[in-house]
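Case study 2.
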Amino acid sequence: MISVLFAVLTALSNGAASVLQRRAASTAPDSEAMRLSLIGHLLRQKVWLAGIGLVIVAAVCQAVALATGPIAVVQPIFVIELPATLLMAGFVMRVRLPRPVWSGVAAVTSGLALGMASAAPGGGSATVHGAAWVPALILTGLFEAALIAAALATRGNPRAALLGLAAACAYALTAALMKDAMARLDEGGAAALFTAWQLYGTAVAGVGALFLLQNALQAGTLVAVQPCLTLGDALISILYGVTLFGEDLRTGWWVLPELLALGLIAVGCVALARSPLASGNTTAPARARRVD
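Prediction:
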């Protein structure tokens, strides 16, 4: 229950952060794409700094969640970050949520419930044994390089989607490294934590994920980024959980409801990302405006 609680708190913080960062990144010129100057531009945006504050809160909550539960349980819960954020925004701003938003919330939450019940993730170890990190890091690096190269060869929403998936992969890697690092804290205390390479790998992967996400949000719409980010993070995290930590998932005929769950989550994320609340616009009706 502790891991689920802190996973939900992480999702709330990350969802709000994504919306704030999208609002800031959308003001950056195209000439700053994939350049460090993009971060310099964003540092002057108060709304972006607020989003970074929420990212830090989310990182602390995520560390607690991963230290107390399997990665295949914790990471998929993060798919609720966008619906939860929009519901909170509508309540705080006293905005009546349109029917597509409620439909999106229903699709994401029911998809998550169906997926978790069907897959029944669990088991596994708290640490990665032996040299299993070596092939994992090599394959992750090759996958990331291919996504970034493909993104640089295109523009607009296709680039945003590819970079969103690259960011998702980096966030999943960050979570796996963080879980392994937190296990060192339990086993050997603070000294073991601060001498573990996984802790510093977490920082590097996290910064890389943040950089890729800002470029994804700058390149295209939230509708293009969010499904790749949400589903990519969940699926790649589950892959890390199974291959690195030895966690278990149901297979066989259970794959059918699991695929249905993924479809519901994808449809729900698209519907929610189209909401005016996701772009920070609370005045225009949902059918009259799209996320820029």
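Residues 156-194 form the longest helix (39 residues).
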